[in-house]
Predict the 3D structure of the following.
Amino acid sequence: MPSALSSSVEGLYHAHHNWLTQWLRRRLGCPHSAADLAQDTFVRLLQLREAPQLIEPRAFITTVAKRVMCNHFRRQELERAYLQALASVPEDLAPSEEHRAIIFETLLELDRLLDGLPLLVKRAFLLAQVDGLGHAQIGAELGISLATVKRYLNKAALRCYFAL
């Protein structure tokens, strides 16, 4: 038996899917990406914990679609940076396609976990976890005190811990 949420999302889908796809197409310039992101938007709506009472459904759908679109652009930017970094690795040291996919998915998850933290907190965490720098090196690299480095790393670690 369908839940009230899935029934309301189904109704929203039938009433607004074509409109949303066109709205996304105008912004993205690509019908395929627009169709994918429209589907992702409705999947996101299905994942809500409870059905919201909507006075302006298109405004709500637009807000969700904008978030989906931002995530899409962030993923593209992260993928570009990752591929750029891989291009600088000698071919004989480059990871296999399977390892590349695993690494990229890990990067996406890490990006999601650190989302919303200040840039310096993210940078400190990545310098410690990815580059293996010590606290003093991170402080010198970012121009911050040792106490601030520790506070930043603690903040990022807590975010990761509680997100899991």
Q: What stands out?
A: The mean pLDDT is 89. The radius of gyration is 20 Å. The chain has seven helices and no strands.
